[in-house]
Amino acid sequence: MLAGFEVSHVDQAPQQQVTDGIAVKMLREGDDNSALSAMLIEFAPGAVFGKEIHERQEILFVLEGEFHDGERVHPAGTLITAQEGSTHWPQSQTGCRLLVLYPHGATR
């Protein structure tokens, strides 16, 4: 492995069920070297997370499907940046797959 690189693969990440129809695979958990946390989140069609208030900045990239933030529908290819203190209602009528980054570490 090249010096200074860290590699993880989604197929090797353990999957956790967050709530009915929403699963998370942790790709990178922040540590002493870097606070960055990265995960893949999959919403089954019709899955709803509920109200989420961000304690830290969150960056979402819609890889597949359509993600609904409680106000708008975001198709695949959309980048969303949620600042600390922002609120949304994550859900998906069609199902979706998201890459989610927490540059300053996840709070969960």
How does this model look, in words?
- The protein has 108 residues and is mostly beta strands.
- It has one domain: Jelly Rolls (Sandwich), CATH 2.60.120.
- It contains no helices and eleven strands.
- Strands 1, 2, 3, 6, 7, 8 and 11 form a seven-stranded antiparallel sheet that branches. A two-stranded antiparallel sheet has the order 4-10.
- The model has no long low-confidence stretch (mean pLDDT 92).
Report a brief summary of the structure.
The protein is an all-beta fold and 108 residues long. The protein has a single domain (10-102), classed as Jelly Rolls (Sandwich), CATH 2.60.120. It has no helices and 11 strands.
Key traits:
0% helix; 48% strand; mainly beta; two-stranded antiparallel ribbon; 7-stranded antiparallel β-sheet; 108 residues; Jelly Rolls
H/E element order: EEEEEEEEEEE
List the total number of helices.
0
Terminal-residue CA separation: 30 Å
The proportion of residues forming helix, as a percent range, comes to under 10%
**Sheet bearing the most strands, described?**
7 strands, antiparallel
- Any idea of the CATH topology? Jelly Rolls
Overall strand count: 11
**CATH classification class:** Mainly Beta
* Overall tally of structural domains: 1
Averaged pLDDT: 92
CATH architecture group name:
Sandwich
Question: Beta-strand percentage?
Answer: over 45%
Look at the structure and name the CATH superfamily: Jelly Rolls
Question: Which stretches of 5+ consecutive residues score pLDDT under 50?
Answer: none
Overall form: globular
Computed over alpha carbons, the radius of gyration is 14 Å
By secondary-structure content and strand pairing, the structural class works out as mainly beta
